[in-house]
Specification:
Protein name: Epithelial splicing regulatory protein 2
Helix content: 25-40%
Number of helices: 21
Keywords: mRNA processing, mRNA splicing, Nucleus, Repeat, RNA-binding
Subcellular location: Nucleus
GO molecular function, one term: RNA binding
Strand content: 15-25%
Number of strands: 26
Shape: globular
CATH superfamily of one domain: Ribonuclease H-like superfamily/Ribonuclease H
CATH architecture of one domain: 2-Layer Sandwich
Family: Belongs to the ESRP family.
Length: 707
């Protein structure tokens, strides 16, 4: 038997049904016994929505009113009545089983499944299998219009059936006409047989087969149909693959078809690539553009198979073995002691959350040289065990607190393969393309007020925005004279300093641009001196009460645009990156604040600069990262500036920066820490020839620079 089902929402109708997230307000159905061609009672049921504000189209087409709907039952009660009445009608007809039949797929896939998922109640099994009358009609009548152009009225007109909708109530005419169409398809001239119903997957599958990491993509050389992939943007950072599958409830996602995207720091960036089983399913997913996940709306766009493979493709025997067990819940652990063993982790998790396969359910993430990163992935066989594990978030193992997050197979892929195993531990500086390096640019000092300070910049503002803001005055900016200030977290502070060619030019800019709008904010512009600028760039504060000295920290200046883990770069002649003054802050004397090096720039010739960043690796959301410039104490620079040798970092050579050292750390402890690694020649001073005075200065600060 078939149960012919029709429904309507409080919003869009027809081809846009369900695209506006409006709730169901009407269900009409009738049982049809195919062998005997008998029908049961036609039922019409109104549904009380949480929001009774009906769209103009709904009012016009359906004739329903908020007052009438206010007296109806909620959806869960209506679905219970639906099951009871269908069972009763089947019993009268002598039948026991049935399959739904709808006009297209929107009612089931885009309305019922998403709404019940949001309201947290389950649909009965009958809603996971149904016949699409439009597809069945086109199979029976191949010369009819394409499936996407069909509707109840066009199918009725093709068969010559009556199409006067005004004779019946809204919904009743549609069901009666659908029943008449079905009887026409069952006639002797057609003898159509309903054999292959549409199916809705009960849950998202994360099956991994054989040694392939991804079930449908054995490697990045495989081809993924671009007509089946979408990009979802604006996801909450804590979203898992199951959360995304729930957002697309009613649509069939391919096995392992959810890939969460990570940014350069390894944090989830609020995007995911989702692969569906067909282009038809993908097109339905695009209709959920700006639907909501909790309080956030999610943007849905087309994506390519190539983009999907960049995130989800690849193979690894270790990863494949780890993920070979089906339908496991994955938890990511961060902050593990570097000496932590499998037994330590299992003991930390305890008997209340047993790991699948014991030690085989643990995957430690390591650097390319085999050293642990402090991250690990853990498999659990059920949601209960995973929830027990998440309760241990920030509990102590050894002397460290451990962070636990939900994770996905695709995140394992990105972190273990794309990030760690394919990236050198310390990226080396590229070979310069010029043998002669010009003198470095330095920040001017003194009390001459030839600088301006911009305060209140939008946090998204870049150097190009500042140049546009300055207008004609950009021609009066010194080369490499734009300095954007970052806070201690490496984020824009909303301040910037600009070096002008003269004090008069600075005065004119301050008068002209003060409280001028940039984007949606007004920016304050003040004239200041190079000394005042240096105080702020070195970490001090400048306000109405005067200058506050900077803390004993290094400057935190803004970087130019860069690609994470840059392996090859062209360094223009204008970029004096290998000079000591470009890498290290200049010395400061009691008489005046010395020149702090400018690592920001004014792109007069659109030249791109590349700096050597300290290495950093993926970490879960809200986990801290350290992104900074290589720097050293001022005394080291004073000594280095007097050195006669030119190539400060010849290949092969690399700088590493150590942070968080005890304040009493000395040279011996540093060398002991790096025991087993080959450091630069010329004793522990590397390639920088330090004087005794400079060497003594190096023993004071908390941060070190090693060559």
């Amino acid at each position: 038997s078939l149960v012919v089902l029709f429904g309507a929402t409080a919003g869009a109708y027809g081809a846009k049904l369900g695209s506006d997230e409006r709730e169901l307000i009407l269900l009409v159905w009738q049982v049809v016994d195919l062998p005997s061609k008998k029908v049961g009672t036609l039922h019409k049921s109104l549904v009380k929505a949480d929001n009774l504000d009906l769209s103009d189209q709904c009012r016009e087409v359906s004739g329903l009113t908020p007052e009438g709907l206010g007296k109806a039952e909620p959806l869960d009660r209506v679905l219970q009545q639906f099951s009871q009445l269908v069972s009763s009608d089947l019993k009268v007809l002598g039948r026991s089983s049935y399959t739904l039949c709808t006009d297209g797929q929107l009612l089931i896939r885009q309305v019922l499944h998403p709404e019940t998922s949001k309201k947290n109640f389950l649909l009965s099994d009958c809603f996971y299998s149904f016949y699409d009358l439009r597809k069945e009609f086109h199979t029976c009548y191949p010369s009819s219009a394409a499936v996407k152009d069909q509707n109840i009225k066009t199918m009725a007109e093709y068969l010559g059936l009556g199409t006067d909708e005004t004779e019946e109530d809204f919904g009743v005419w549609q069901v009666k006409t659908m029943v008449a169409i079905i009887f026409s398809m069952l006639s002797e001239s057609c003898s159509h047989v309903f054999t292959e119903p549409e199916t809705v997957k009960y849950k998202y599958e994360t099956v991994y087969l054989g040694f392939f990491f991804f079930p449908l993509c054995s490697s990045k050389s495989e081809i993924v149909d671009s007509e089946t992939v979408i990009r979802a943007r604006g996801l909450p950072w804590q979203s898992s693959d199951q959360d995304i599958a729930r957002f697309f409830k009613g649509l069939n996602i391919a096995k392992g078809g959810v890939a969460l995207c990570l940014n350069a720091q390894g944090r989830r960036n609020g995007e995911a690539l989702v692969r569906f089983v067909s282009s038809e399913q993908r097109d339905l997913a695009l209709e959920r553009h700006k639907h909501h996940m909790g309080s956030r709306y999610i943007e849905v766009y087309k994506a390519t198979g190539e983009e999907f493979l960049k995130i989800a493709g690849g193979t690894s025997n270790e990863v494949a073995q780890f993920l070979s067990k089906e339908n496991q819940v994955i938890i990511r652990m961060r902050g593990l002691p570097f000496t932590a063993t499998q037994e330590d982790v299992l003991g930390f998790l305890g008997p209340e959350c047993p790991v699948t396969g014991g030690k085989e359910g643990l995957l430690f993430v390591k650097y390319p040289d085999g050293r642990p990163t402090g991250d690990a992935f853990v498999l659990f066989s059920c949601e209960e065990y995973a929830q027990n594990a998440l309760k241990k978030h920030k509990e102590i193992l050894g002397k460290r607190y451990i962070e636990l997050f939900r994770s996905t197979a695709a995140e394992v892929q990105q972190v273990v393969l794309n990030r760690y195993m394919s990236t050198p531990l310390i990226p080396t500086l590229p070979t310069p393309i010029i043998p002669v390096i010009p003198p470095p640019y330095t920040i001017a000092t003194g009390s001459i007020r030839d600088c301006v300070r911009l305060r209140g910049l939008p946090y998204t503002a870049g150097i190009d925005d500042i140049l546009e803001f300055m207008g004609d005055a950009t021609g009066d900016i010194k080369p490499h004279g734009v300095h954007m200030v970052l806070n201690q977290q490496g984020r824009p502070s909303g301040d910037a300093f600009i070096q002008m060619k003269s004090a008069d030019k600075a005065f004119m800019v301050a008068q002209k641009c003060h409280k001028k709008m940039m984007k949606d904010r007004y920016v304050e512009v003040f004239q200041c001196s190079g000394e005042e600028m240096n105080f702020v760039l070195m970490g001090g504060t400048l306000n109405r009460s005067g200058l506050s000295p900077p803390p004993c920290k290094l400057p935190c200046l803004s970087p130019p645009a860069y690609a994470a883990f840059q392996t090859a770069a062209v360094i223009p002649a204008e970029a004096a990156l290998y000079q000591p003054q470009a890498l290290l802050p200049a010395t400061r004397t009691p008489q005046a604040s010395a020149a702090a090096p400018t690592v920001t720039y004014y792109p007069a010739q659109a030249a791109q600069l590349y700096m050597n960043y300290t290495a950093y690796y993926p970490s879960p959301p809200v986990s801290p990262t350290t992104v900074g410039y290589i720097a050293a104490p001022p005394g080291a620079v004073a000594a280095a500036a007097t050195a006669t040798h030119t190539p400060i970092l010849p290949q092969p050579g690399a700088l590493v920066r150590m942070q968080g050292l005890p304040y009493n750390t000395g040279m011996k402890e540093i060398l002991s820490f790096f025991q087993g690694y080959q450091y630069a020649p010329d004793d522990y001073n590397g390639l920088i020839q330090l004087s005794d005075q400079a060497r003594s200065v190096l023993q004071a600060p908390k941060e070190w620079v090693c060559l």
